[in-house]
């Protein structure tokens, strides 16, 4: 049986805003199935929530700067799958993350990607050489692939402004930046030792910033089921305790079966330099851990989580604010349950958490105890899937493990989807209430949203999409008659058409129409229309063209206030000498007609001629020389400002 590595997480930022909790999809599950024999294909599978349009794997070899992509294909059962037969190399560490697009936009797993990513290490093929019959002709042995260099990797870039039409006093003309990465690792049997560090340089630092700064440092030691990490890392436990986020500190994981454990001592705020690498700084730390166990032949998993800490926002790096910052403090405990039953068709997850918490210990706000809980279930069979979830958060509940946490809310959401090879249908609904208990002098809000989407495959090359949107919002300040109760209703329709003409032509058309009715101090209505057309035309080995056109109009009543915006953009890439000389072009223009009748026109154009230095560096490094010209035309208070600039570029990577 192939070894299976399962990575589960929430492909969303759990604490970014209350609305994200209302519309967040259920967890995205990603499964990497390593080949049964070394050198075989890696299979990547993703179980995404209903309404997901696409799932893409981003991957690169350790030490490389750019990610490559691998698109996962949707099956009739809604599962996205891809076989990396010849894409992912073996015998070298692979860094990867997953991105998906659904009803709430594009999300990534891990949520902090590409700053955070998963690490894979596919074993190289070790198959014995076939026997050669006597007298048969033999071919020379294959040339082994070059091993990745190391342990030092250096990337640098420089840009010199050699001409500008509109001079700017004291403007720096030479901009240089780069980084030095140190990657060390050693593997012996079931033991792994690794260390990575990144030193970043800029010759134009911000105020109070040094030219050389520490980007990130991480050390890891793993043996068997034990793993110890120190430095910059990503850790998460559950929605109501330790949410996803990049942190710094110490982390230990025991991944045994059926029992697993996790202990952590982490900084709650991002630190600079080498501060808090091994142990969190005082006043901004979270300590805790979890203990989980599998039951009923691994069908059910239970996990106990506990954390305690103090979060001083003033200790965060690169934080500038004119407001007094609170100091959060408290402890949180939770019981998390996840299960899969009936041959994985039924998935159930839930969490109950309780906290002793103060939102601002700095001003002496007393600690209060409160609870939060959530329950979600999903049924998947064939091309059909349905999901429902509910969460209720008490008004005094809080945690230092999530950057921005909003209490006192109740959220109900659900979705249903049916996918077939030639058509698909999905629907979602959300109901969120903030301050549902009606606490005096605090804002109270009620948001509802619904969507219905259909997809029809007209031919192997054409797909038609249509969707309906509806929503309602109500808000007020309880017991404050000076702020009248306000509400609004909105509805709309979206349509789209995708055309793929192999081998290298893709066209996408989208149209959206919305209506808004608002009643507050004064009743207003509005409508908007938006059209867009984009595509990608490949020119074989000579390059590609990517045009984009868009138009929108917003109408508000009373007053017949109308605003119209039109945009046209083009990105192009031409290979003048394949592998040696490239020309990159991008630019476009926009025209805005305001409700006052005033017209604003803006345009920009940029061209870069790049010369590849790789053949002259004898495979020791990668590099390029470039000449970039930029033209801009923008409206200003005193009229139109036109400018053109010319740059010399240099990029090196070793």
Task: Provide a quick synopsis of the model.
This protein is mainly β and 654 residues long.
Compute the average pLDDT: 81
Identify low-pLDDT runs.
1-26, 124-147
Please estimate the helix content. under 10%
Shape: globular
Number of E strands: 35
- SS class: mainly beta
Q: What share of residues are in beta strands? A: over 45%
Q: How many DSSP H or I helices?
A: 1
Radius of gyration: 28 Å
**Biggest sheet, open or closed, and with what strands and sense?**
26 strands, antiparallel, barrel
- Report the span from N to C terminus: 40 Å
Walkthrough of the structure:
1% of the residues lie in helices and 62% in strands. The longest helix has 6 residues. Strand 29 and strand 30 form a beta hairpin. The two termini are 40 Å apart. It has 654 residues and is mainly β.
């Amino acid at each position: 049986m192939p070894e299976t590595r399962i990575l589960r997480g929430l492909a969303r930022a759990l604490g970014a805003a209350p609305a994200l909790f209302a519309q967040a999809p259920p967890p995205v599950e990603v499964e990497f199935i390593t080949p049964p024999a070394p050198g075989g294909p890696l299979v990547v599978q993703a179980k995404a929530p209903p309404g997901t349009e696409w799932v893409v794997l981003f991957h690169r070899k350790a030490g490389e700067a750019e990610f490559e992509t691998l698109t996962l294909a949707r099956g009739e059962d809604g599962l996205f799958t891809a076989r990396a037969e010849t894409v992912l190399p073996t015998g070298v560490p692979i860094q990867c993350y997953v991105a998906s697009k659904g009803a709430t936009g594009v999300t990534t797993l891990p949520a902090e990607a590409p700053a955070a990513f998963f690490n894979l290490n596919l074993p190289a093929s070790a198959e014995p050489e076939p026997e050669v019959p006597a007298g048969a002709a033999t071919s020379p042995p294959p040339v082994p692939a070059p091993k990745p260099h190391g342990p030092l990797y250096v990337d640098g870039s420089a840009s010199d402004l050699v001409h500008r039409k509109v001079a700017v006093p004291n403007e720096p003309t030479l901009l240089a930046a780069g980084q030095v990465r140190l990657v060390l690792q050693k593997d012996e049997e079931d033991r792994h030792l690794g260390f990575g560090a990144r030193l970043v340089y800029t010759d134009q630092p911000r105020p109070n910033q040094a030219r050389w700064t520490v980007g990130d440092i991480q050390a890891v030691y793993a043996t068997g089921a034990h793993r110890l990490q120190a430095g910059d890392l990503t850790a998460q436990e559950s929605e109501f305790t330790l949410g996803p986020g990049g942190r710094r500190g110490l982390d230990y994981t025991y991944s045994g079966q059926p029992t697993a454990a996790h202990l952590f001592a982490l900084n709650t705020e991002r630190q600079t330099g080498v501060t808090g690498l091994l142990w969190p700084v005082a006043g901004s730390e979270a300590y805790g851990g979890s203990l989980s166990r599998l039951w009923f032949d691994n069908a059910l998993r239970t996990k106990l989580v506990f954390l305690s800490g103090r979060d001083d926002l003033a200790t965060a790096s690169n934080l500038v604010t004119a407001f007094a910052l609170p100091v959060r403090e408290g402890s949180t405990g939770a019981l998390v349950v996840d299960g899969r039953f009936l041959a994985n068709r039924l998935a159930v997850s839930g969490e109950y958490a309780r906290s002793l918490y103060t939102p601002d210990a700095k001003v002496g706000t007393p600690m209060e105890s409160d609870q939060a809980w959530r329950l979600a279930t999903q049924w998947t069979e064939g091309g059909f899937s349905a999901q429902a979830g509910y969460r209720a958060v008490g008004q005094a509940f809080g945690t230092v493990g999530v950057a921005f946490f909003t209490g006192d809310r109740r959220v109900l959401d659900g979705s249903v989807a049916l996918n077939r090879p030639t058509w698909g249908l999905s629907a979602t609904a959300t109901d969120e209430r903030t301050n549902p208990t009606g606490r005096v002098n605090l804002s109270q809000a009620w948001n509802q949203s619904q969507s219905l989407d259909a997809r029809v495959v007209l031919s192997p090359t054409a797909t038609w999409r249509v969707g309906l949107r509806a929503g309602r919002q109500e808000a007020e300040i309880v017991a404050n008659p000076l702020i009248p109760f306000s509400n609004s209703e909105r509805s709309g329709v979206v349509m789209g058409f995708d055309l793929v003409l192999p081998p290298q032509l893709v066209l996408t058309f989208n149209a959206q129409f919305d209506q808004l009715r608002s009643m507050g101090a004064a009743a207003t209505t509005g409508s908007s229309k938006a059209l867009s057309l984009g595509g990608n035309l490949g020119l074989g080995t000579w390059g590609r063209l990517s045009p984009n056109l868009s138009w929108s109009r917003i109408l508000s009543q009373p007053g017949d206030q109308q605003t119209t915006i039109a945009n046209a953009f083009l990105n192009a890439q031409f290979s003048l000498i394949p592998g040696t000389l490239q020309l990159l072009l991008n630019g476009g223009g926009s025209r805005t007609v305001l409700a006052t009748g005033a017209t604003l026109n803006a345009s920009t154009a940029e061209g870069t001629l790049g010369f590849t230095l790789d053949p002259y560096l004898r495979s020791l490094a990668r590099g390029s020389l470039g000449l970039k010209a930029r033209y801009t035309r923008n409206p200003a208070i005193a009229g139109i400002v036109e400018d053109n600039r010319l740059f010399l570029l240099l990029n090196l990577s070793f």
